[in-house]
């Protein structure tokens, strides 16, 4: 066991405890410094893509409602992230199977 302890760094003795704890506190405050731009800039970056309504979405039965797609038949308001044509088509084909083959004029009317 003495060989194992020989490679371990000794912990501060009671006379050096105050100095050691000051050094540890200084290291901790340096790591979590709120004024540091490197730690705060990454947390505020948003990678979400904001899609805009396109007039062709009416062929799937969706209209624009405050930058979110609103399905006309069931009045379901989907989030903006669902405003991709593939997701709109999937809602039409899975939830409203009977309206899948309707043309654009049906939804306009």
Write up what this structure looks like:
The chain is built from 5 helices and 2 strands; from the N terminus they run H-H-H-E-E-H-H. The protein has helices at residues 2-6, 17-31, 37-41, 85-95, 104-108, and strands at 62-64, 69-71. It has a two-stranded antiparallel ribbon. The termini are far apart.
Secondary structure blueprint with pairings:
Elements: H1 2-6, H2 17-31, H3 37-41, E1 62-64, E2 69-71, H4 85-95, H5 104-108
Antiparallel strand pairs: 1-2
Output the keywords.
109 residues; mainly alpha; 5 helices; 2 strands; rod-shaped; Zinc finger BED domain-containing protein 5
Distance between the termini: 87 Å
Adjacency order of strands in the biggest sheet: 1-2
| Helix percent band | 25-40%
Strand percentage lies at 5-15%
Radius of gyration from the CA trace? 30 Å
Number of helices: 5
Q: Sketch the major β-sheet.
A: 2 strands, antiparallel
Order of helices and strands: HHHEEHH
**Overall geometric form:** rod-shaped
Total number of strands: 2
- The averaged pLDDT comes out at 73
Low-confidence stretches: 29-33, 36-41
Structure, briefly:
By secondary structure, the chain is mainly alpha-helical.
């Amino acid at each position: 066991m003495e060989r194992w302890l020989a490679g371990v760094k000794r912990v501060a003795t009671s006379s050096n405890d105050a100095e050691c704890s000051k050094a540890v506190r200084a290291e901790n405050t340096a790591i979590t410094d709120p004024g540091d731009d490197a730690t705060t800039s990454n947390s505020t970056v948003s990678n979400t893509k904001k899609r805009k309504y396109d007039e062709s979405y009416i062929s799937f039965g969706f209209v624009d409602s405050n930058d979110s797609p609103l399905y006309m038949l069931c009045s379901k308001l989907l989030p903006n992230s669902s405003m991709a044509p593939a997701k709109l088509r999937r809602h039409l084909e899975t939830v409203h199977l009977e309206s899948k083959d309707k043309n654009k004029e049906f939804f306009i009317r």
